[in-house]
Amino acid sequence: MIRANNHQDVVDFAAASDVPVVNGLTDFSHPCQILADIMTIEERLGAVEGKTIAWIGDGNNVCASFVHAAEKLKFRLKIATPASYAPKTQELAAARAAGADVTASHDARTAASGADVIVTDTWVSMGDADKDARMAAFPPFAVNDDVMAAANRDAIFLHCLPAHRGEEVTEAVIDGPRSAVWDEAENRIHAQKAVLLWCLGKI
Ligand code: NVA
E strand or H helix at 65, and its extent? Predict the structure, then answer.
């Protein structure tokens, strides 16, 4: 397993390796996190297929993995980001061409409307150098009670952690009854055990 800033480093390493190489997070994607997130959604709400997931905040690596998962697992994905931090258009186009139901906008409440799951992430990820610009752009995308109120009544809140209370999520939401972040964090280990079993040909 490699955690790298540069996704191409992992691709190059895998191309030269005789054994499985797991992406443990890159600047491009974070598939291991999404496995735990999907597991948490299914524990709380049942099958993810047909559910609506709203990604609010940065169109970053974790967001990209939700786009990839939407294609494979048939959930609806509604993304809301500032215009300057939108997910890559080629990623969205490729997912849509493969049948994924993915929309991208710049309004948090529009994305949250009708969602079963609200997900966000830190506004400044590992390797991001433009902290001041980010802190100026992201406040309208904070997940607060208003955003949660636009979602379905039973909607849950997810965050891959570490979180910054008072920035991308309010204390009331992340520590409130709809937050599933601690189950989500626990599920990282269970989902990663499954990845290892899959690499070993056991499942
Ligand atoms: N987007 C975050 C995820 C941390 C688990 C980062 O790349 O830093």
Answer: helix 61-73
